[in-house]
Every structure is written in C-alpha cells, then in structure tokens.
Design goal:
mainly alpha, transmembrane helix, membrane, transmembrane
Length: about 70
C-alpha cells in the first residue's frame, strides 16, 4: 500500500443538507419550547408537522439534484 496525494477532484465535497436540516429541526423545537414556557401555543402541531415534512422533502430534492449535477461534471 502506498501513500498517494489526493487531487482536488478526488476530495469529497461538504454536504450541507444535514446541518441545514438539524438547524431547522432545532428552530422548530425551540418555537415549541418557547410557546410552552410562555403558555402560548405556537400553532397546531399537525400544521407544523406538515410544514416540516414539506420543507424536508424540498431539501431532499435539492440535495439530489445538486448531487446529480456534481456527478455529471466529473
């Protein structure tokens, strides 16, 4: 086994989908905690869950499209 230098093309690109999803989930959870502490509900949990699912689906689609574009370039 030999050590070889890694060219710029072989380096892995950073995937920002996971941190974006994590920040989004933390923001939604923070809103619910803040609403509970203050005694004012944020909104209907079913509506919030629907919005979360739609946004996470859109994030997944964008991630897949970007990954396919990167693959086509190489």
């Amino acid at each position: 086994m030999t050590n070889s230098t890694v060219t710029k093309e072989e380096k892995r690109r950073t995937d920002l989908a996971a941190p974006v999803a994590g920040v989004f989930y933390l923001a939604v959870a923070g809103l619910f905690v803040a609403g509970t502490v203050q005694g004012h509900p944020v909104g209907d949990p079913m509506i919030v869950a629907g919005v979360v699912l739609v946004l996470m689906g859109l994030l997944g689609i964008v991630r897949a499209v970007l990954k396919a574009r990167r693959r086509d370039r190489s």
